[in-house]
Design brief:
elongated; 7 helices; 0% strand; mainly alpha; 82% helix; single chain
Length: 239
């Protein structure tokens, strides 16, 4: 089978697409994991102190709303800062291209020489890319930025909000729907199974081995629930 050298292979990760996918993966998986673990720890801790379903439900809903808002705001601020930095670098590059175009062409040529091209070929590539889109050429090689695909803080914020909420609903339902005698056990099982799922999904999307991600998720979630249940139980006995 002959492969056209100018055609990208679809099963290979390409830098910009892979970077964008990792951003979405980070926001989504972190949001879901935080929603599962933090809400599970909260409701299990309250369940260790009291069997009142209303108290557990109120604490769980409050934790869900506060956590989802916190994740969304945190992602928005973080990605906005990243986007501001990218815009600042692009503005600087625009000024340099306008004020010192010859020096910028020499710089682009040198960057391609550093990547292994001969000087003559590097000069030709730099000239052709500069004629086509000088800013995009310099931004890609110098900064690793695609001017047409800057990170979007609103996308990251909504992804984190939705992911956290979806994750938090599972332990909230698992702790409030069953009877008092089994609700903690049901929540432990449901949460650990969910963490197996999120660990597997994160590893597959990130193209990494699944076992380490699953083990980290499950051990972290189990430890969080065990600690908060123990503390809640002690507080319940004390008061």
């Amino acid at each position: 089978m002959t492969v056209d050298a100018t055609t990208p292979l679809h099963d290979e990760p390409h830098e910009q697409d892979f970077h964008n996918r990792l951003n979405w993966l980070r926001a989504g998986v972190l949001g879901a994991n935080d929603g599962i673990v933090s809400t599970a720890g909260l409701v299990v801790g309250v369940a260790g102190a009291t069997t009142q379903r209303s108290a557990i439900l109120i604490a769980g809903v409050a934790g869900l709303v506060a956590g989802a808002m916190s994740m969304a705001v945190g992602e928005y601020v973080s990605v906005s800062t990243q986007r501001d930095s990218e815009q600042s670098l692009l503005d600087k590059e625009r000024r340099e291209l306008h004020e010192t175009p010859d020096e910028e062409l020499d710089e682009l040529t040198g960057l391609y020489v550093d990547r292994g091209l001969s000087h003559a070929l590097a000069r030709q590539v730099a000239l052709e890319l500069t004629e086509h889109d000088a800013l995009a050429a310099h931004a890609e090689v110098e900064l690793g930025i695609d001017p047409e695909a800057l990170t979007n803080p609103w996308h990251a914020a909504w992804a984190s909000f939705i992911a956290f909420t979806a994750g938090a609903l599972l332990p909230l339902l698992a702790i409030t729907l069953p009877g008092a005698s089994v609700r903690v056990g049901v929540t432990f099982v449901a949460v650990l199974l969910a963490l197996v799922g999120t660990g597997w999904v994160s590893s597959r999307m990130g193209e990494s081995p699944p076992r380490p991600a699953i083990v980290r998720n499950v051990l972290g979630g189990a430890l969080a629930m065990a600690v908060t249940f123990g503390i809640g139980n002690l507080i319940g006995l004390a008061v």
